[in-house]
Amino acid sequence: MEDRYSAADNLRGQQKLAFFGIFDGHGGAKAAKFVANNLEKNVLDEVILTEEDSIEEAVKHGYVKTDSAFLKTVVVLRCC
């Protein structure tokens, strides 16, 4: 099974701040593991840098940052 998960509460000392995720392994076990290990930090970093009314955009930026970082770890094989 290639799925992974992440669950954390009381983040950065705030009782009401939590992060829960289930990551589908369709991109492979390496992708699911990378996201489980990095998405929480990237989203939280973006949320802290933004204003309250822009939380949705901050979450999107955290996802994009995680995706970009993972793609940099993938070796692209070229044929012929």
UniProtKB/TrEMBL annotation:
It comes from the Eukaryota. Keywords: Hydrolase, Magnesium, Manganese, Metal-binding, Protein phosphatase. Residues 1-80 form the PPM-type phosphatase domain. Its EC number is 3.1.3.16. PROSITE patterns: PPM_1, PPM_2. Its cofactor is Mn(2+); Mg(2+). Gene3D superfamilies: PPM-type phosphatase domain. GO terms for molecular function: metal ion binding; protein serine/threonine phosphatase activity. PANTHER family: PROTEIN PHOSPHATASE 2C, PROTEIN PHOSPHATASE 2C 2-RELATED. This is protein-serine/threonine phosphatase.
